[in-house]
Design goal:
CATH class of the largest domain: Alpha Beta
CATH superfamily of the largest domain: P-loop containing nucleotide triphosphate hydrolases
Distance between the termini: 49 Å
Number of strands: 16
CATH topology of the largest domain: Rossmann fold
Radius of gyration: 25 Å
Shape: globular
């Protein structure tokens, strides 16, 4: 950690509690933090011996208020290469655009999760080839997808949507697994919106974003004086969602004891708040998500088998974006249309060369990262079309793709006709993919699927059986 020990962070913040928190978080990775409480001191500090040692700046927008972007410009004028992260309570896309154009490297919405803060600092101060184009910026935009407009024709993606569409109409638990950024949370929200409980109470909790010592109270509630600091009685999410739906994202982050308690609650239907002598019977539908395969965690002894059984009546796997590269062009155009609706931005087209470049990248951050890259490119685009020149970091990572040599992106129907060896796939496999695509496209409405395929409903079900296709997948 010798290199990290030399890194100095200047925090421009006048909130002592927040300053202590950020200082402590940064110290975990070897950062020293210099806290200043106003704009004038921050600018003056840049010219000092200590200021010349700075590796990054975090600016709380509250300190300069409406002049935050102007302060960013002044700091950048004096130290152009110094990364600046803006911390704000505002989720306004317009403020994000203005801050980035002023020179901010990233934009963090309070309360910021520790992992998010550390990731932003690490990305902003990397010494290798610049990757700031790949910053996770999508928290600035409202969610862009709903159940009816999730973009993609890849068979594995449409199969996941079809299974979700069928499960949404039921009352059983659903587990969605997949890498971060694949759209698990959006699919869970869409399932709730399409479910019989759509108008009933709903709450979404990300287990990673809740402190470990608070998550039990958040889920189960607590009685007054149940533990030091419990000054009032608190209703937990399970009781709040009685008759409705509770979504737990990153459920694998729950402690083993809490997993066991949640499993018993789901089995019995009885919620017992912390410190309570009696429980409360509830009817809650639990939808959950995990970035990691829970069966593997269970095999390794890191996930409670009883909870896995209770939450996985239906299991859906969201494919990574690299597993459906044919969807990138359609996703890019969709996101650009939505980004163009944001204040301070406009609708843009995208060239074939740029789409070729985007399709060549493996997108470890998946759909969320693609949206972030397009957002950043749109912010700085002065013309009407995004080209490869608007993605310099991707070009550096993947090599140059010349405009005149780029092939038009073919957006097919999502059914592969050829195998990896170049030969045609068997007709049976192609037919199975077409049926899966149709089930996904028409969201599991089997009468409509049969009508659109031009076959009878009984014929469709016979084909499902013959081809070994679950009618939800």
């Amino acid at each position: 950690m010798a290199e990290s020990d030399s890194r100095l962070l200047m925090l421009i913040d006048d909130e002592p509690a927040q300053s202590r928190l950020i200082t402590a978080l940064a110290a975990r990775e070897g950062w020293r933090t210099l806290v200043v409480s106003d704009s004038e001191t921050a600018i003056a500090t840049l010219g000092t011996r200590q200021g010349m040692q700075l590796s990054a700046i975090i600016l709380d927008q509250w300190v300069p208020g409406d002049d935050a972007c102007e302060l960013i410009r002044q700091l950048k004028e004096r130290r152009p290469g110094l990364p600046i992260l803006m911390l704000t309570a505002s989720a306004s896309p317009l403020l994000a655009v203005e801050a980035m154009r002023a020179g901010a490297n990233d934009y963090l919405i309070k309360p910021v999760a520790p992992d998010r803060l550390m990731q932003a600092l690490r990305s902003a101060t990397k010494q290798e080839a610049p990757r700031d184009e790949l910053q996770p910026l999508t928290e600035k935009l409202s969610p862009l997808l709903d159940f009816d407009s999730m973009i993609g024709t890849a068979p594995n993606f449409r199969a996941a949507l079809a299974k979700a569409a069928k499960a949404a109409r039921g009352h059983g638990s659903v587990l969605i697994e997949g890498e971060s950024g694949t759209g698990k949370e959006m699919l869970l929200r869409a399932m709730h919106a399409a479910s019989p409980r759509a108008k009933a109470p709903f709450r979404l909790i990300n287990a990673r974003g809740v402190p470990a010592n608070s998550i039990e109270s958040v889920l189960f509630g607590h009685e007054q004086n149940a533990f030091p600091g419990a000054f009032d009685r608190q209703i937990g999410a399970l009781q709040h969602c009685d008759g409705g739906t509770l979504v737990i994202d990153e459920i694998d982050r729950l402690s083993e004891d809490l997993q066991a308690k949640l499993a018993e609650t789901l089995r019995s239907g009885i919620v017992r708040p912390v410190g309570a002598k009696h429980g409360f019977r509830v009817d809650v539908r639990l939808l959950s998500a995990s970035n990691l395969p829970l069966a593997d965690l269970n095999d390794q002894g890191h996930f409670h088998p009883d909870l896995l059984k209770e939450i996985s009546s239906t299991k859906i796997t969201m494919p990574a974006l690299r597993e459906r590269p044919g969807d990138i062009a359609a996703l890019a155009r969709y996101f650009l249309g939505k980004i163009g609706e944001q204040p301070g931005l406009r609708s843009l087209s995208i060239s074939d060369s740029a789409l070729t470049l985007l399709s060549a990248y493996d997108w470890p951050g998946n759909v969320r990262q693609l949206q972030a890259v397009l957002f950043r490119a749109a912010v700085f685009c002065e013309g009407q079309t995004l080209t490869i020149d608007h993605f310099p970091q991707l070009s550096e990572l993947l090599g140059e793709i010349r405009e005149e040599s780029a092939k038009p992106i073919q957006e097919g129907v999502g059914v592969m006709l050829y195998a990896a060896d170049g030969n045609l796939r068997p007709l049976e496999e192609i037919e199975a993919d077409v049926i899966r695509l149709a089930i996904g496209h028409y969201r599991g409405r089997m009468t409509e699927v049969a009508r659109r395929l031009g076959i009878g409903r009984s014929t469709l079900y016979r084909k499902l059986a013959d081809l070994g296709i679950d009618n939800a997948a």
